[in-house]
From TrEMBL:
Keywords: Aminopeptidase, Cytoplasm, Hydrolase, Manganese, Metal-binding, Protease. It is found in: Cytoplasm. It comes from Mycobacterium botniense. GO terms for cellular component: cytoplasm. Its EC number is 3.4.11.1, 3.4.11.10. Its cofactor is Mn(2+). It comes from the Bacteria. The keyword Ligase does not apply. Presumably involved in the processing and regular turnover of intracellular proteins. Catalyzes the removal of unsubstituted N-terminal amino acids from various peptides. The gene is pepA_2. Residues 355-362 form the Cytosol aminopeptidase domain. This is Probable cytosol aminopeptidase. The active site is at K287, R361.
Length: 511
């Protein structure tokens, strides 16, 4: 598959027993729980016992006791266990004992384990007996790293995690592992796009990479260049892009999955739209210098949408999925749009641009109108749209807005997959904030309240009443500027790829 020079996902193998030889350099990841018992502070989770020779459990627990390790949540410890045919054991804590663990607890534990391998290239784990999908996703996502721009001076000496062996007795283990590996690889693709710096990922290059990736998965791809955008009346994309020497693009990636459905006529059609600002300086309404470099992440919505539609093709989802992805660089210059300019969106709505830093909604409105010309049943749009999202919900909780029912469905699914989107309202009265004295709308409100919701209200103006839609604001969650945690590294997180793909699967199954 043609991908940007980025992360190479490890191979995943399912086995029903611990390999007896050939694993001398492998690390065995074993889940442990805290017992509250001083003599046995950390205990191997019982589901792991059948895979281990009798004396191994006692040896591991003796090791934990010697280290005072309690099996607390995501606590990791490395042990040498002579009775096992592996190089070492890495225990990972799940917290208190229980019969079943939430999937994301296991996903995070797997991620934390993957982040503490210290260069080991092969792992074997029993965590998979608790939840195959969460284990595979957590291990792959936790071992993710982005080294494309390191010379020999700082490149890692090891090749990273190359081989994962997941132990399981479940009959569907292989199918589940392959599915989870594909999902995790899609998230890694989204992360690679986000982590590629704006020097190297500008609209034309982003479009070319999206096209190559999409075509390799069998998608039909159309790319509109700046001339085509101008001629067709994409005033929002043109207005935002015209301050840059690197002109805008609009990419369409089409998965005709209804052909794979039992009843193609009844198959649903889903439109995806993602914000692809390859760098957001704010334009003439320029941003402060501190932290402006974080705006390399302002194409994270586009990255997630491209990864999601590609995955839909790879996993042959029996529904139509059409991604519409506007791409532009928001720069200040002599050719940039000015505060006070009026532009005409695709479809004819006019907008007074009072703040050139509210550029996301300008390119998204054009793309939403285009996407809805295909008469989709559902529209999912995602963007790093507002700083107000992080004020309202923090850095790990996407805000989900849109039509009430579909919004709640998307948020519930997002919770289930561990991306934790939360439903937010679009109060009717906020529309009054967007009244212009010269055009149909202004692009910002006059006050600073409810910034996330005002942006959603702006987008709503462009969605036909017949389309069930959701807007997912991932300004914070798409890009981790803090320390790594669970399976989330620094930099691009790939959020909300797993949410969107799970929603597509849900629609494929339930309509
Ligand atoms: N890309 C930003 C939003 C953003 C902020 C994403 C922080 C990630 C982290 C967006 O284009 C923007 O600048 N929004 C403005 C809107 C305002 C001018 C109404 C904002 O949030 O300040
Ligand atoms: Mn902006
Ligand atoms: Zn932006």
């Amino acid at each position: 598959m043609s991908r940007q020079p980025g992360y190479l996902a490890p191979d995943v193998t399912v086995a029903s027993t611990l390999p007896r030889r050939g694993a001398a350099s492998a690390v065995l990841i074993v889940p442990v729980v805290s017992t509250g018992d001083d003599d046995r502070p950390g205990a191997v989770v019982a589901a792991a016992h059948p895979f281990l020779p009798g004396e191994a459990v006692a040896e591991i627990e003796a090791g934990l006791r010697a280290l005072d390790a309690t099996g607390g949540s995501e606590q990791v410890n490395r042990l040498v266990v002579p009775s096992l045919p592996v190089g070492s054991v890495l225990t990972v804590g799940l917290g208190g004992p229980r019969d079943e663990w939430p999937a994301d607890t296991l996903r995070r534990a797997a991620g934390a384990a993957a982040r503490s391998l210290g260069g080991a290239e092969s792992v074997i784990t029993t965590l998979s007996e608790l939840d195959m999908a969460a284990t595979v996703e957590g291990l792959i996502l936790g071992s993710y790293r982005f080294t494309a721009f390191r010379s020999e001076k700082t490149a890692p000496k090891d090749r990273g995690l190359r081989k994962i062996t997941v132990l399981s007795t479940a009959r569907e283990a292989k199918t589940q592992a392959a599915h989870a590996a594909a999902v995790a690889a899609a998230v890694a693709t989204a992360r690679d796009f986000v982590n590629t710096p704006p020097s190297h990922l500008f609209p034309a290059e982003f479009a070319a990479r999206a096209q190559a990736l999409g075509e390799s998965a069998g998608l039909d791809v159309e790319v509109l260049d700046d001339k085509a955008l101008q001629d067709a009346g994409y005033g929002g994309v043109i207005g935002v892009g015209k301050g840059s020497s690197r002109p805008p693009r609009l990419v369409r990636l089409i998965h005709r999955g209804s052909q794979l459905a039992k009843n193609p006529k009844a198959a649903k059609k889903v439109a995806l739209v993602g914000k692809g600002i390859t760098f957001d300086t704010g334009g003439i309404s320029i941003k402060p210098a501190s932290n402006m470099h974080h705006m390399t992440s302002d194409m994270a919505g586009a990255a997630a949408v491209i990864a999601t539609v590609t995955l839909a093709a790879q996993l042959k989802l029996p529904i139509d999925v059409i991604a519409t992805v506007p791409m532009a660089e928001n720069m200040p210059s002599g050719t940039a749009q000015r505060p006070g300019d009026v532009l005409t969106h695709y479809g004819g709505t006019t907008v007074e641009v009072l703040n050139t830093d509210a550029e996301g909604r300008l390119i998204l409105a054009d793309a939403i109108v285009r996407a809805c010309e295909d008469n989709p049943d559902y529209l999912i749009e995602t963007s790093t749209l507002t700083g107000a999202q992080t004020i309202a919900l923090g850095t790990r909780t996407p805000g989900v807005m849109g039509s009430d029912e579909f919004r709640d469905r998307v948020a519930a699914i997002s919770q289930r997959v561990g991306e934790n989107g939360w439903p937010m309202p679009l109060p009717e009265e906020l529309k009054d904030e967007l009244k212009s004295t010269v055009a149909d709308l202004t692009n910002v409100s006059g006050q600073r309240f409810a910034g996330m919701l005002v942006a959603g209200v702006y987008l709503r103006e462009f969605v036909p009443d017949t389309v069930s839609w959701a807007h997912i604001d991932v300004a914070g969650p798409a890009y981790n500027t803090g320390n790594p945690w669970g399976y989330t590294p620094k930099g691009g997180t790939g959020v909300p790829t797993r949410t969107m793909f799970a929603v597509l699967e849900d629609i494929a199954e339930h309509g």
